[in-house]
Amino acid sequence: MNFSSARQSFYQEINQPDEQINLAKAALDIAQEEYPDLDLEEYLNALDTMAAEVQERLPAERYPMRTIQTINRYLYDDLGFIGNTDDYYDPRNSFLNDVIDRRTGIPLTLALVYLEIARRIDFPMVGVGMPGHFLIRPEFEDVGIFVDAFNRGEILFEQDCKERLAQIYQQPVELQGNFIAPVSSRRFLTRMLTNLKMIYMNRQDLPKALSTVERILLLFPDAPVELRDRGLLYYQLGRWAEASQDLNIYLAMLPNAEDAPLIRQLLKHLGGDG
């Protein structure tokens, strides 16, 4: 595969068992396509330094709540990390180097900083892809607490999560198990790339949108919607043979998809099978 060095590094990182993927390294590989001169070690070292400084502040008795409070004081009070509510859709909110430099980001990337610090101090935490908002929680059985990295490490309980879901859906919602299940590394990275994809699509930056879809497909090669979207981006970029191939695969996978008639019409225009 004729990949850039950043893409090759990303591919190598994700081409191993999920639990062995270094999330921070993979996230920086994503950023390096935007910033070719990015020094990955500089930012990995920055995370090491943060973790070491948290370690020094930890109390002798490391109960989960005390550990979380120590991380919160360090990240939000000492370093001034904050959720970016002023320009939520700034792509820099999705690049880990920018988040570390600017000390601002979106729920996912602030959660990543938090998770990386927790991992380095041997305090296991996992990401939780709750609908409407990304949270993290300690990976201990029956702890029952969640942390909102976007809102200064606010500590939430299951009832708080239910109330947030009720606000989103405008009706009472049960806290289903899949809402608070751990997010795999591949899913985490896919969510990061999907955020960027939506930003670039809205900005009509088609080459960068295509770049994000290509990397999602490295993570999940058989994702039908991503194959469709890559085909549509190829079409808009005038790469019609590649567009036809992806769109035909999409129809073969989902022949009864809601948008299948439109895709068949587009393929006829391209002279494809449809």
TrEMBL record:
Residues 42-193 form the Protein SirB1 N-terminal domain. It comes from the Bacteria. It holds the Pfam family TPR_9. Belongs to the UPF0162 family. This is SirB1 family protein.
